[in-house]
Amino acid sequence: MKTDPRATDRRTRGTASRGETVPTVPPAPTADAVDVTALLERGRTLATPVLRAVVDRLAPPMDTVAAYHFGWIDAQGNPADGDGGKAVRPALAVLSAEVTGAAPEAGVPGAVAVELVHNFSLLHDDLMDGDEQRRHRDTVWKIHGPAQAILVGDALFALAGEVLLELGTVEAGRAARRLTAASRALIDGQAQDISYEHRDRVSVEECLEMEGNKTGALLACASSIGAVLGGADDATADALERYGYHLGLAFQAIDDLLGIWGDPEATGKQTWSDLRQRKKSLPVVAALAAGGPASERLGEILAADAKSSDFANFSEEEFAARAALIEEAGGRDWTAEEARRQHTIAIEALGAVDMPDRVRARFTALADFVVVRKR
Amino acid sequence: MKTDPRATDRRTRGTASRGETVPTVPPAPTADAVDVTALLERGRTLATPVLRAVVDRLAPPMDTVAAYHFGWIDAQGNPADGDGGKAVRPALAVLSAEVTGAAPEAGVPGAVAVELVHNFSLLHDDLMDGDEQRRHRDTVWKIHGPAQAILVGDALFALAGEVLLELGTVEAGRAARRLTAASRALIDGQAQDISYEHRDRVSVEECLEMEGNKTGALLACASSIGAVLGGADDATADALERYGYHLGLAFQAIDDLLGIWGDPEATGKQTWSDLRQRKKSLPVVAALAAGGPASERLGEILAADAKSSDFANFSEEEFAARAALIEEAGGRDWTAEEARRQHTIAIEALGAVDMPDRVRARFTALADFVVVRKR
User: Which of A13, A21, A370, B216 has its CA 20 to 30 A from that of B49?
Assistant: First the structure.
């Protein structure tokens, strides 16, 4: 694995500052122009009604707590048209059904199951991490208390298995098995994330492994689960998982850039969000691993920060200075390059799968979208 | 449902006091005398090595935290020969495999999966309920913190699905589906339990529904999962689930008696444990529903207790007085009778299943054991 940030020194440094464009990848040439917005909308339109019906199976008050979490109601219980997120996972799940020649609808139970697992992990992670805000709203544990966050998370995780296994087919059993493996990876990733918080140094390799678990594994499952439900063989499913896994790593690299240099208006997070949380994200660990004066200075400052009792009151300028050092040490460029590298591996993985050109173009367009997004 | 505690007034009242024998059920006549201890030991012996191997798949530190929870190591990480509990569930799971003529070993993945779900729920429930002790030891959240309790609970839940679905058979898919349904019931039951804590009154029916979810559903799954893995049809599995569900209600009724009148030496709980926790368990709700002077007096006292700021400092005598009122109002006798009633329904459910006499005798003996146990 080529993870030495100094390797990026030969490239021209980006000069974008916070709020401006994060590094972009030129869209790959595709057979037809793909409307990514329509593709995301299709996944959302197909999955949401089923997701809502499944969540409605929960006994009170879990149904209400879950509806709040998904943004369907506000804290007072009034209907809301919440920000449901980018919906990349459902779009991938229904698209992957088309690999086998099935209708996108065949992927819907997979899309719903993946969304349930994703949201189970958000509910529990927000509580474990003490995060009070998600998508501009108070988190569930903040509004409804820790017990409800645990309980509703558990319930969503159980529903994910239910929605697949009640199909009663051999394919559904295979899909459930892959989803279980992805869920375990997700949990491993959260365990690593927590343990890294207590450590002074995390290597670039450790960070990538954690991000592969936390983000790659479920995107891998999303990218293949529709195909599995449609009867794809294991080799096809494995190749689609590879696409999704590396897409997930590209996704997370961009997320890590947005977590430091993203526009708060677009991301819904505070300025310098990941720095405020002392997150050992890719730009940080890459900068620390790079060596050189800026890297060493950054290491000293972050070590002092870790012991500081006044950290919560740091000014905008103090975080900006840390971000500038990360950039000077090469952490920003390296992470942008890493996103491109993972994007390339994802696209290459598609090459092993026989699928209609139209479907391949859509997978490619979704991968392009993931690395150019600003939120 | 006949749940009026006054209906028990015609029967002779037991005179046992705390620490003495709880009401017993005469063992049903069986073809051969069954050694229940050996039966429980068989389940434990078959399931534990596989359970340990599966838990060992967890990434650090989750493997250690889980090993502590199961009593395999102490808080310092030294090997321990912990109290693994009664192991009724694994015994039932491997026994149920024999219904189909399969070897008990065929039920082992089911036994392990059920134990994983059971322990997932213990980890999360102890945290939600703030319980600091389980089986004479500090609970996981108390030793390793809330995040690890959440995370390891999640991991055990995921492992449960994994251990079944990796079998890759149609039967394993059916077993996983039934286990998912049981898990959802377990979560519903915990949600009810939490909501009842905030209410002044809970009906006997509501209490039974909650106990059916919290205890009945997983014992139902344990009693049938081996048969499902062995290829039993749905009618057979459903009948075995009925046996296990009502066995679970009998089990819980006895647990509720032990929670008030059990011997602390045997149960590992404090004296008057459930009263100290203000639990609205069966004896309490039955006593409150009974009417009459003792019932009314109890209602007044518990209502005052709910508002008392000094409740934590109540003396042994004050709890003993409450227990005496519950008994006087008929709550103790009614609960003992309920255990017998559920035991009878459980045994009757076995009648619908064709199985070897030897296997039937063992199911019957396990049911008898559940209602005569003292811990």
Answer: B216
